[in-house]
Design a protein that fits this description.
alpha/beta; Rossmann fold; 5 helices; globular
Length: 198
């Protein structure tokens, strides 16, 4: 992978702002994961586990997957510190190669905007999900104030719904759940939660 900007950020990644945003996301995702006690969850692009480690009580197991080893080192330390027995980490980049995995739930929290080929990654994640499995995406609504060569400027909910359907998901519900100041590349922005069933 090209010089991974997230490797350099890992140690100082958990800023107060990121932790605050993670709390907002955790609250929204928790509501989505009720009745998941016996289910396995993959947090793809987990970073340091700010979101998924707060959900470990709701599921049977969590696998934090990230393409930054440094981020996962921070996540591992948190798992160890909290004495968690149902969380593991995997260093992997599914845009390059997808390992043989299966999961009942996959979470992408503010990750899709960093992936150039959204169709390809959504197809890979669809393939990993068990039948009836759920893909939960948290990301930013399209924002024309944001312009960056390596980041999507958010997503149109209608367009995303169409892509998810083309990939093979049978149903998708999307709603905007949060508006914040300067949360997306220093711009005011809104976040949506999308839940798709395989």
């Amino acid at each position: 992978m090209e010089n991974n900007v997230f490797e350099q950020m890992a140690k100082r990644y958990d800023t107060e702002e990121r932790m605050e945003l993670a709390r907002v996301i955790v609250k929204e995702v928790r509501a989505e994961l009720h009745n998941s006690k016996l289910k396995s969850l993959i947090d793809y692009g987990s970073g340091t586990g700010l979101v998924s480690l707060e959900l470990s009580d709701l599921v049977d197991s969590i696998l934090l997957v990230d393409s930054s080893e440094q981020m996962l080192e921070v996540a591992k330390a948190k798992i160890s510190h909290k004495g968690m027995t149902n969380a593991n980490v995997l260093y992997s980049d599914f845009t390059q190669e997808t390992p043989e995995l299966k999961a009942d739930i996959i979470l992408l929290s503010l990750v899709l905007l960093h992936i150039q080929d959204t169709n390809k990654i959504l197809q890979e994640l669809f393939n990993i999900l068990t039948h009836g499995g759920k893909l939960v995406i948290i990301d930013f609504d399209r924002n024309n104030q944001v312009n960056h060569p390596k980041v999507h400027n958010g997503f149109s909910q209608e367009e995303l719904k169409k892509v998810l359907s083309e990939v093979g998901f049978t149903s998708t519900e999307i709603k905007t759940f949060y508006h914040g100041n300067r949360i997306f590349m220093n711009q005011d922005a809104s976040m949506f939660i999308s839940s798709s069933i395989k």
